[in-house]
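Continuing the batch. This is chain 6 of the set; chains 1 through 5 are on the previous pages. Same settings as before, nothing changed between runs. Recording input and output for traceability.
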Amino acid sequence: MAIEPKERFFDDYPVGEVLEYGQYPVTAEEIVEFAGRYDPQPFHLDESAGRESHFGGLVASGWMTGSVMMRMMVDHYISRVASMGSPGLDEIRWLAPVRPGDVLSVRSTVVDARPSRSKPDRGVIWSEHDVLNQHREVVMRVKGMGMYRRRP
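Output for chain 6:
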């Protein structure tokens, strides 16, 4: 019997595991709203400014894409019983623009997992997270780590 991803402990994230999850439709309204609050560059705020840019149209802020990814990870990947937060990211890349009408999902791969030597009740998991659009193109890639409690 498989363990529900959100009920897992450190020991339940095997190296090499790949999980795909989520489905998030992106709207022009949300792109503009997010940009107005957090990343007010013209190509994120206005369709005509986007058309005049190298993007050729309105595009989402990469930080919005990261926020959408984080929401899907919380909903589907990060354990609610064992997550202890993250000490950080090693890499973030925006590989293709996200446009109104795109539908995003996430593919997460466990790259490495090491129990803590100094605190045996926990370990660190290194993962690679790809944000995919509806054409299965990788629009963003994040490499980072998370701390998880070990099974009691």
